[in-house]
Design a protein that fits this description.
This protein is α+β, with helices and mostly antiparallel strands. It has a single domain, classed as Outer membrane efflux proteins (OEP) (Up-down Bundle), CATH 1.20.1600. 63% of the residues lie in helices and 12% in strands. Strands 1-2-3-4 form a four-stranded antiparallel beta sheet. The protein starts with a helix and ends in a 6-residue tail after the last helix.
């Protein structure tokens, strides 16, 4: 019996294995998609260097110690990051369960009963017949698999591993996004600080001009229309300054939210503390495939679709039921044996799908289409990623070029303002000329501040476009 059972199982498994090579394949991008064209994927920003911005960690990119402290605090305290870590643990538990599916289940059971017969009529002829209790007991241990498709189990385990990579990839996306947002908000506060300083100077100048014109009006040398116009401009400048103050508070509150803290003033340095990395090449093109969370997610979905197709294919192969049990009992059939005896049992069965109303074939065809959709999405994600990198590189380059232009403009306006100021002090030149020259200088300084912030944002966007740098 044992030999016959063994032969049946071995023959069935070997026969299934010989016809099921397709469902035992592992995912390989090159075999599933073929070679993805990456030449020129960065457009004009193409680089063949082995190192680039994509290889820098956020600590190397954001070197301001105060900012680094805030980023580390955000990574430690942010709710999204902590929740993602918990989700990773959940998927790890599920993966362990998938691995345990290959191990046979083991069940222990025990039972017992006692039977006593009574004569309700208390007849004398039966008084000595029902004297003893009938006691039946037993204990059994069963081990085996119940209706298991090992081909499907193997692919489900592979798919579970892909799911773990997906949530880990999601954590990378959350982390990179958090780092970028903290940096942007931090430098926005620095930007608003510098804008407030310039606007305070503008407000002070217009207040001086307004007071001068009021005195001239009292002396009969200016009219109410001119004075009122200057007053309106002054209050407009005050309103703008107040908006800068409000925006700084709002930005600090937003940063505190990322830190998981109540709103408070944020310690910071200056916008000039940001130093773009000297190495601004993108790195080797293949890095975009391994670092960008969205591209990585597209590939993981492709791998998941690949294993889903394998699972659908596995449904065409037989499932196995294999149980072995041993028990000790004194109840054997209709007889009661004391002391008890040992009973061993082994059962094996193979169930081969023959006709399932077309459901299995339909599901397999659907899985093939889903795999093709995943292929297309993956290739498109690579193209879109390359275009984003190209755009971000262009913005970084433009910000650097504009920095030179704005610098020349500000220098020229500074010279003009200084000269106008000297003319006013040494001649009868109208103070309005001083105000006009100062406004031009302030505008060019504002443009420089905006340009520096543009450079920060462009570099951060490029950092994100390349996948958030190295760990």
């Amino acid at each position: 019996m044992k030999k016959t059972l063994y032969n049946v199982i071995v023959c069935a498994l070997l026969g299934s294995a010989m016809t099921s090579c397709a469902v035992f394949k592992n995912y390989h991008r090159e075999k599933v998609v073929g070679e993805v064209q990456t030449d020129g994927i960065y457009g004009d920003a193409q680089s063949g260097d082995s190192l680039g911005l994509g290889d820098l960690s956020w600590r190397e990119l954001f070197t301001d110690p105060t900012l680094q402290t805030l980023i580390e605090k955000a990574l430690a305290q942010n709710t999204d990051v902590r929740n993602t870590d918990l989700q990773i643990q959940e998927v790890q538990y599920a993966l362990k369960a998938s691995k345990m599916a290959f191990i046979p289940s083991i069940t222990f059971s025990a039972n017992g009963s006692i039977t006593k017969a009574y004569d309700p009529y208390n007849r004398a002829e039966y008084r000595n017949t029902f004297t003893d209790n009938t006691k039946i007991y037993g204990a059994s241990l069963t081990m085996g698999w119940q209706d298991v498709n090992f081909f499907a189990l193997r692919n489900e385990l592979k798919k579970a591993k892909v799911s773990l990579e997906q949530i880990q990839n999601a954590r990378q996306a959350v982390t990179a996004g958090l780092v970028a947002n903290v940096a942007k908000l931090y430098y926005t506060i620095c930007e608003l600080d510098e804008q407030i300083v310039l606007m305070e100077q503008t407000v002070a100048n217009w207040k001086t001009y307004w007071e001068m014109q009021k005195k001239l009006m009292e002396a009969g040398q200016a009219n109410i229309a001119a004075v009122s116009s200057i007053e309106a401009t002054y209050w407009s400048m005050v309103g703008t300054l107040d908006e800068f103050y409000d925006n700084r508070t709002i930005t600090q509150t937003a940063l505190c939210t990322l830190l998981g803290e109540p709103s408070h003033a944020i310690e910071h340095t200056t916008l000039a503390s940001f130093q773009a990395p000297a190495l601004i090449t993108t790195g080797a093109p293949v890095s975009i495939l391994s670092r960008r969370p969205d591209v990585r997610e597209a590939e993981l979905k492709l791998a998941s679709a690949f294993y889903s197709k394998q699972i659908a294919g596995s449904a065409f192969y037989p499932s196995l039921t294999l149980n072995a049990s041993g028990s000790f009992t004194n109840g054997f059939g209709a007889s009661v044996i004391n002391p008890g005896i040992m009973i061993g049992e082994a059962v094996a069965a193979l169930a081969q799908p023959v006709f399932q109303n077309g459901k299995l074939r339909a599901q397999y065809k659907i899985s093939k289409n889903e795999l093709e959709i995943a292929k297309n999405n993956f290739v498109q994600s690579v193209v879109a990623a390359g275009n984003e990198v190209n755009t971000a590189m262009l913005e970084v380059r433009c910000a650097e070029e504009h920095r030179i232009y704005y610098g020349h403009e500000a220098d020229a306006n500074q010279i003009a303002y200084d000269a106008t100021r000297r003319l006013y002090e040494n001649s009868s030149l109208n103070y309005l000329n001083v105000i006009t020259a100062h406004n031009a200088l302030i505008q060019s300084r504002m443009a420089q501040i905006t340009n520096r912030m543009d450079a920060v944002e462009a570099t951060v966007e490029l950092y994100l476009a390349l996948g958030g740098g190295s760990k």
